[in-house]
Amino acid sequence: MKNFSVYNHSFHIPVMGTGFTIDTALKVARYGISSVMSVDDNLMEKMREYYSGLYGEHFEPIAKNAPDSRARRITAYLNFVHRAVTRQFHELKVSEFKEGTEITKYFDLLDDCSSLKQEYNRMLGLREGVEKTQLQQSLRDRISPGPIDINILTKLDRENYKKGQKLPREYADGHSALRGFAKSELNSSVVFSAGLNPYLYSYVENFDCFYADAGGAIEKKITLKVSDFRSALIQGKIFAKKGIWISEYRIESGLNCGGHAFPTDGCLLGPILEEFKTRRGEFTGELFKYYRAALAAKKGIHDPVRPAARITVQGGIGTSSENRFLLRYFELDGTGWATPFLLVPEVTSVDPDMLEKLLNVDEDTVYLSGASPLGVPIYNLRNSASELTRLKRIAAGRPGSPCLNKYMAFNTEFTEEPICSASSHYQTKKIAELNQKGLGPEEYAKEYEKIVEKACVCHDLGDGVLAKYGLSYKGYNPVPAVCPGPNLVYFSKLLTLREMAGHIYGKINILSQKRPRPHMFINELRLYIQYFKNLISSASPKITAKEAEYFAEFKQNLLTGIEYYRNLVNHFIEESEQSKKEFMDYLSLLREELEKLTGTHPAVIPV
Fold this sequence. Notes:
Mean pLDDT: 95
Number of strands: 12
Shape: globular
Helix content: 40-55%
Low-confidence stretches: none
Strand content: 5-15%
Strand order of the largest sheet: 1-2-3-6-7-8-9-10
Number of helices: 20
Number of domains: 4
């Protein structure tokens, strides 16, 4: 099965945690839906064993201490998923066009506005005969499975050790994951998220599969998750100068998203998308100059086809009208829907206990935390099994987590070989150091909390799938963590894939009636103002000139975004007049709230 990233759906399912989408491709790829999985080789090995049993395949384990085990485990699982989806799709493709069949489900899930769905509906209206049979064959020929992509968090590229000796950089976690994907049978994309990693980006050059052939086809593509235009251009140039084309720029809201959050300096999603829209031709044209020269020098291809560069967005989308507006006005190629899919058991792997908790969240239950050892804010659930276990360990005088994966083992304060700041090993040593400082009660409590708030977010974020299928690692009971985006509070019931797709495409409305949901741009603005407040409240009265300049820039960016939205509302043709009025009312209230921050701290000067 060759699948060079054909998109029959306008939405994709982004990576969620390490476990929630680890097997999503096995559930949705045959219907043409694109999804992204994480690259936890321990979890992948566990899932390969589990699914090999279900699919009747022989399972040959790859030991953790075997040579190049991380890359080999990743390759083995990706190849298994590829084989399974190939089989699923073949069975779907040859099924009959009758109610309840797989091929009928494929077409039912499509957007009614798509040309493929319209052709399908035309076929349904024909009488039995040659024309209908020919059209059915044409429809079969036009469908394809959804791309099976992987996500590599570029910051998680820890160098590894064996018997106390550091291994060559190619065995670092990110490098090994990339090698595992490159050697797999998949024809899909690797999504690089969390920013630039020069070593990892250079390592891409070692694999021919990332280069276009003479006809312009790319076997394995690269998607960059970016926060703004400047970041996309800088990273795109790095690859273009290597002769490697970025096939997709996936823009994500800095705060209105799940998982790790990467806030901008107050730059809002709308103005960011506007810059991509207005400068898209300039953007791809400049990159192609570098790409063309590099491809000629490295591969001898002197007149390459300019590959497509998709621009997509994700983070906080909640209604079909928002979805259609983003695609139409900003001329985007697709959208990502993540958090709501946590409530779709046939798509994501969430254990029953966690599902019950996710169905009953509020604005306080889902919060932006400092739990990640990565040092980046991450969304958390206050009553997850992982969080409750963390608090129990603290109460018992044993703070910290067992460090099973070591993906975030970067700290060398106390050891020569890096350890994780969420581990009990580190927190015990750090607290002992704190006890020697002779701090007062208030300052001690503050510093203590900074230490113990760090929690396992690599292993625990994969425990949900283990709990769902009744699996575990020897001697370890799953304690699932979850990192949903704040958009979750507006969804409050279990959903089917058909319902979720129907909601995205405007066939039905599944939003909770418990609380009104403001527009996604309003929600993001609210989150940024709250984030700005927190920055101000945590700042010292004696700040530097540089910090004062940062606060002023942050506020100005928010004000610029508000004015941009005042004009943008005139283009909301998908929204009712009442919705547009509510949008403007929210903008006025939030601007007033932002203005009130002036004078609350010496750093916040009038703008």
